[in-house]
DNA sequence: TTTAAATAGTTGACAATTCAAGTGAATATT
DNA sequence: AATATTCACTTGAATTGTCAACTATTTAAA
């Protein structure tokens, strides 16, 4: 009978009045797929895909990362990241070395060609972001980001 | 020199002051993966995965869908959905039939076992949603949803 | 009414991801 | 110091997803 719990009913997937259009994770999934598809279009001509792209961007930002670091940021499984990295190495995009301070860790960096590749893709990717946030002001973008982060933090506890 | 364009710089992936933590699609991707991983934990004991689950939920809501309908809602490629559906049929979760009004379309529905399966999984999945939106009020959830939809709509033009 | 074009889905070859089970290096325990 | 445990990957087998090419059905055009 209380207003709040009644209203919340429609977000409860098990509820009879559940409305999927009102379910945030439905839109997170769709938004993510759509973004990925748009990006693939930009990436394909450069012989890249979304997986390689995510790894490359992280390396561009951080300079040097271990396989686990990449897995953590890109939220992928270790074997998956391992294989992406070695694929990228075979394509000349990254260098792979064993850490000098810890023999267990594998350190990955972008090669010159990898850097060039990233920069030329970057030009094309901006349009996707612009399109999605068309009409948004800076504070709105910041708030959107805060929201996404908050949900992520909540879920990772 | 203008305030706005300077502030917006950090969201431009090509920019030198780009900060990935401020990039909404980075968080969309991470949030989506994290949600998927949490869901997988709940789904695994019932012999389900996220793909099957998405198809099952859509069928629970809509009752009957064609392969393309499912592909559209789940934002998957046609061959992918086709294979998921036939896998689910082999596992007894769905029925697959040719439409009586249009011989090209394949109509998919949940079997009784599929329904039971969905209901028992639903019990477990609520906690994931609750965890993510812990501390959110109903208007906040609604606003979050609006935001995600808006981004999706922008991108799909 | 043929023929052409568009739809809706399927299939097979290939690529990517994932699980389970390993390896080898570093830490912790006895 | 020897052994056990944990950590950070790596590998192979199996599953899943994707592209390209194809089939069958319906709709549109000539």
UniProtKB/TrEMBL annotation, chains A, B:
Keyword Transcription: yes
Domain HTH marR-type: 1-153
Keywords: DNA-binding, Transcription, Transcription regulation
A GO term for molecular function: DNA-binding transcription factor activity
Presence of the UniProt keyword Transcription in the record: yes
Matching SUPFAM superfamilies: Winged helix' DNA-binding domain (SSF46785)
Cross-referenced InterPro entries: ArsR-like_HTH, HTH_MarR-typ, WH-like_DNA-bd_sf, WH_DNA-bd_sf
Stated name of the protein: MarR family transcriptional regulator
Native species: Pontibacterium sinense
């Amino acid at each position: 009978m209380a207003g709040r719990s009644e209203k919340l009913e429609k977000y409860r997937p098990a509820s009879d009045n559940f409305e999927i259009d009102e379910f945030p994770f439905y839109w997170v999934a769709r938004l993510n797929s759509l973004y990925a598809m748009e990006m693939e279009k930009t990436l394909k001509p450069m012989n890249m895909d979304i997986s390689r792209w995510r790894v490359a961007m992280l390396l561009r930002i951080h300079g040097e990362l271990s396989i686990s670091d990449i897995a953590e940021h890109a939220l992928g499984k270790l074997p998956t990241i391992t294989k992406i990295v070695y694929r990228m190495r075979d394509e000349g995009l990254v260098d792979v070395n064993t850490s000098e301070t810890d023999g267990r860790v594998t350190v990955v960096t972008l090669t010159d060609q990898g850097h060039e590749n990233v920069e030329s893709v970057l030009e094309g990717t901006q349009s996707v972001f612009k399109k999605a946030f068309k009409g948004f002001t800076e504070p709105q973008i910041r708030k959107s980001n805060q929201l996404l982060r908050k949900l992520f933090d909540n879920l990772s506890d």
